[in-house]
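Q: What does the assembled structure look like for these inputs?
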Amino acid sequence: MSRLPREFFARDTLTVARDLLGARLVRILDGQRLSGTIVECEAYIGQADTACHASRGRTSRTEVMFGPPGFAYVYFTYGMHWMLNVVTEEEGFPAAVLLRAIQPAEGIQTMRTLRQTKGNPRTDRELTSGPARLTQALAIDKTLNGADLVAGDGLWLEPEGRFPDDSVERGPRIGINYAAEKDQLAPWRFWVRGNPYVSR
DNA sequence: CAGACGATTGCCT
DNA sequence: GGCAATCGTCTGT
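A:
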């Protein structure tokens, strides 16, 4: 299987986010392929974007976003959740795309096990329909922060297909009430219309 | 070094 | 619809 190359990520973040819809996210866990098609994501773009973690400057947490494109930015929030981002743009410009939902393809039974809560398996639609759900289903945590998605061997992206423009919807990003109004309103969330795996 | 809070989820009423 | 869970990161003293 081919992978998305470095040049794919070294572009305008909104273009990368739109083009990631339809790409295949692949995780290798104990030699097994876990994968799914990206159906929802959000762009976080530079220090002028008050919703972007990098807006308050370069810190140990945001360091990866300032680095070269095609690397994973994984961070922890709400005391229990991991979020997976793909770093974009040229080195030195902090930006990334948050992966919010995938449609499961390979390793679904393993994902069910990873998603069990107090012994209760989730329904299939709940497996990966949310940024913290998909990281749990694919066993993604801080050990993958800074991972190279182009040359690494545990996590990467493969070209799979491209959703047509008339099936792609755009709207404001979710959960950023702390940001400036202009950033809360920016239509930087992309999703596939009607796909059951899109969050909420 | 203490205090606040979060790019969410799941359970409860 | 409301809210607790749970802890790393950031801010200010």
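Chain A has a mean pLDDT of 96.
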